[in-house]
Input
Amino acid sequence: MEIGSQEIARVTGKPSTVRIEMKQTIPTQSSESVNSYTKIKVVRNEKEREAGLFVHKQFMDHESMASFLNNNTILKESGFPVPPTVREIVGKNELLITDLTEGGKHIVFSVNEIQDNAVDIPFRISNLSQVEDEILRLGKKADEKGFVILEDAYFIVVDKQTKLARVVLGDLGPQGFYSSVEDFYKTFPLLTGATSQSVERAKILIDTDLRFLHESKAS
Output
């Protein structure tokens, strides 16, 4: 996405115009998109207002972008915790997504970063057991809905001031989420027939990856 004016799609009404002020590439392991922090202003009636930082995801193809956007809508409408704002850049395979760090107020990390020892939290997360309970609750809810949430979908958002953490489903591509068990089995045929996929994945996340946090200085 170039610095300058762009149109973003809205849920209702005409597209809004945003002005891109700054871009900063985010290191990412994703094979589907290139991510960057983007500072934007919303332009309306020839007036501009600051909208803050967003994560800009530039997808490799339209199918990946459309799938991510659709999965976000499905989860949001079903009451799952997802980023508050996800907007499509009109005519491009690109999305603007709420910056979960809120400009550095929060530490945000995923399973991949735990596995790679890339999580650097200089304090004890005060509610880690509640985070684990929430992950298990979301897994159970997903199974009830017929969804499959994989480990990669879970992002942990830690408030630096309160040291409290919460869960957001952030990776909504094929490594993180399937809106139906049938689609999941098509991708992973050897697992066909296995039950409670989301709960089992949640347990794996809790028993393996989050264990590193319990054993580190961050716990």
Observations:
- DSSP finds five helices and eleven strands in the chain.
- The helical segments are 62-77, 111-115, 128-145, 181-187, 197-215.
- The first strand starts at residue 5 and ends at 8.
- The longest helix spans residues 197-215.
